[in-house]
């Protein structure tokens, strides 16, 4: 899997895809979707999809896909190789969602939650496969959030296609298992070869699994904290683990939208007493021109 | 009490990058701006800059200080003990261009920092000395 494009700019999302097998443009196909690296506080999340003719369903079983998490890294790599050996029958595509993208979306003014990010990515992948001319008839997706709602959402976007959203779909449908292998291989590689824009040098895997509970991950976070900037962009700032460490160890930062909602209600409701007090206290209000521009005359330091 | 502003020659180092961020950072002192902030900065011309601070999305624009003016970052090295004491403010860095950042909003002409500078033109006009043969006279004549 060639990730050099992502390595050149690891703040942006990046799509990697196989060639589209000829038969998948003619024969009706099934398509599976799964993700890797949803939980970790470090590194990208990867969405993967695999597709092949429905007539090949039985043949896929022999490749030995299962939930990528239950396989060792070597095993996953060898299965991914087998997938590529069968490139005349199976096509794949992955989208690497950069940790910068995850942080900045989840910490916008109007926060975007991870489920929405995940759904949107799955939809993008399906659309892109369709745009490539693949004759998709069935879609199997490992669920994120409520499977019924997610399924209804996909159904509305792709009414022509038979869609199944289920928990543990990666274990029950080989094509989803294959998608999870692609996603996990891409995630492992991206994490291992991560180039820090912040100039941090790292030996292999010094950051552990990336899960908040992993002692190596904790150590990485503690050792690479900056009291002003928090963490390198490899870290998902929107994770409570990262947020707590920043609160404890970094300098305080306040934003203009801090407690926006709470304060608004208080500010906009004048107290009852205010209606009975005399307004004119001889104080002249500045013209709106100055108020709007936050301009004041400085008469003391 | 009088206040004095001094800008030593050392403050006129042109190798300067000034960022105006939409949050207050409770820290005065050096920071790894190049490594942690500028390294992730993406450019699409002078406008449409993007980066992030503490994981929050920032949109920015490079902005020149109006001509005839110089930007100065000042610091009071010694705080006064009493109100009567003279104040000495030192310029530690001058700049004629800076980058301002909005939180998750594209830079537009409506941004306060740009509107604020309208005042410079208006002030110039309203504080211009009135000459005898100025427009006021012609208004009366009409």
Structure description:
- The complex is a heterodimer of chains A (301) and B (142).
- With 301 residues, chain A is α/β, with parallel strands linked by helices.
- Chain A has a domain at 4-192: Ribonuclease H-like superfamily/Ribonuclease H (Nucleotidyltransferase, domain 5, 2-Layer Sandwich), CATH 3.30.420.10.
- Chain A has helices at residues 4-8, 23-26, 57-61, 73-85, 99-106, 114-131, 147-157, 169-172, 174-192, 215-223, 240-249, 260-268, 288-292; strands at residues 14-17, 29-36, 45-53, 91-97, 136-142, 162-166, 253-255.
- Chain A has a six-stranded mixed beta sheet with strand order 1-4-3-2-5-6, with helices on both faces.
- In chain A, helix 4 packs across helix 9.
- Chain B contains four helices and eight strands, in the order E-E-E-H-E-E-E-E-E-H-H-H.
- Chain B has helices at 33-36, 112-116, 118-126, 135-141; strands at 3-6, 19-20, 23-25, 49-53, 56-64, 71-75, 87-95, 97-103.
- In chain B, the strands form two sheets. Chain B has a four-stranded mixed beta sheet with strand order 2-8-5-4, with no helix packed on it. Chain B has a three-stranded mixed beta sheet with strand order 1-7-6, with no helix packed on it.
- The longest helix of chain B is centred in the C-terminal third of the chain and has 9 residues, at 118-126.
- Strand 7 (253-255) of chain A pairs antiparallel with strand 3 (23-25) of chain B, so a sheet runs across the interface.
* Assembly of the depicted chains: heterodimer
Total count of strands of chain B: 8
Tell me, briefly, the overall form of chain A. Answer: elongated
Write the CATH architecture name of the domain at 4-192 in chain A. 2-Layer Sandwich
pLDDT under 50 segments of chain A (min length 5)? none
In CATH terms, what is the fold-level topology of chain B? Lipocalin
Average pLDDT, all residues of chain B: 85
DSSP strand content of chain A: 5-15%
CA distance, first residue to last residue of chain A: 61 Å
* Secondary structure: helix percent of chain A: 25-40%
Distance linking N and C termini of chain B: 50 Å
Give the number of domains of chain B.
Answer: 1
CATH fold-level assignment of the domain at 4-192 in chain A: Nucleotidyltransferase, domain 5
Number of helices of chain B: 4
Strand order in the largest sheet of chain A? 1-4-3-2-5-6
Mean pLDDT, all residues of chain A: 89
InterPro entries (chain B): RNase_H2_subunit_C, RNase_H2_suC
Cofactor (chain A): Mg(2+); Mn(2+)
Enzyme class (chain A): hydrolase
Domain RNase H type-2 (chain A): 28-251
């Amino acid at each position: 899997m060639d990730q050099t494009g992502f390595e050149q700019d690891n703040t942006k999302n990046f799509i990697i895809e196989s060639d589209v097998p000829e038969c998948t443009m003619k024969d009706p196909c099934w398509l599976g979707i799964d993700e890797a690296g949803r939980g970790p506080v470090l590194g990208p999340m990867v969405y993967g999809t695999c597709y092949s003719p429905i007539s090949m369903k039985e043949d896929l079983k022999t490749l030995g896909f299962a939930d990528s998490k239950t396989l060792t890294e070597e095993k996953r790599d060898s299965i991914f190789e087998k997938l590529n050996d069968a490139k005349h029958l199976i096509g794949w595509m992955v989208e690497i969602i950069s940790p910068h993208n995850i942080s900045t979306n989840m910490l916008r003014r109007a926060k975007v939650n991870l489920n929405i990010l995940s759904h949107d990515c799955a939809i993008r992948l399906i659309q892109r496969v369709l745009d490539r001319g693949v004759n998709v008839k069935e879609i199997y997706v490992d669920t994120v959030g409520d499977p019924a709602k997610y399924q209804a959402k996909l159904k509305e976007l792709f009414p022509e296609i038979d869609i199944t959203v289920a928990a543990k779909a990666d274990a029950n449908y080989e094509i989803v298992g294959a998608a999870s292998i692609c996603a996990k291989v891409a995630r492992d590689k991206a994490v291992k070869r991560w180039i820090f824009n912040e100039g941090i040098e790292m030996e292999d895997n010094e950051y552990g699994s990336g899960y908040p509970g992993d002692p190596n991950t904790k150590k990485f976070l503690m050792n690479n904290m900056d009291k002003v900037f928090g963490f390198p962009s490899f870290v998902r700032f929107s994770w409570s683990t990262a947020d707590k460490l920043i609160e404890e160890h970094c300098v305080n930062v306040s934003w203009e939208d801090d407690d926006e909602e709470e304060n608004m209600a208080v500010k906009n409701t004048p107290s009852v007493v205010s209606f009975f007090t005399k307004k004119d206290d001889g104080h002249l209000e500045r013209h709106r021109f100055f108020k709007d521009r936050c301009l004041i005359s400085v008469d003391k330091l | 009490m009088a206040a004095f502003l001094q800008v030593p020659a050392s403050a006129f180092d042109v190798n300067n990058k000034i960022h105006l961020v939409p949050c207050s950072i409770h820290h005065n002192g050096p920071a790894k701006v190049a490594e942690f902030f500028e390294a992730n900065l993406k450019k699409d011309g002078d406008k449409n800059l993007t980066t992030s601070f503490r994981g929050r999305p920032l949109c920015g624009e490079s902005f020149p200080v109006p001509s005839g003016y110089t930007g100065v970052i000042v610091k009071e090295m010694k705080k006064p003990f009493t109100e009567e004491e003279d104040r000495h403010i030192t310029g530690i860095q001058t700049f004629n261009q800076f980058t301002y950042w909005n939180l998750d909003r594209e830079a537009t002409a409506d941004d306060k920092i740009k509107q604020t500078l309208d005042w410079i033109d208006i002030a110039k006009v309203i504080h211009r000395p009135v000459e005898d043969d100025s427009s006021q006279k012609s208004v009366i004549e009409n």
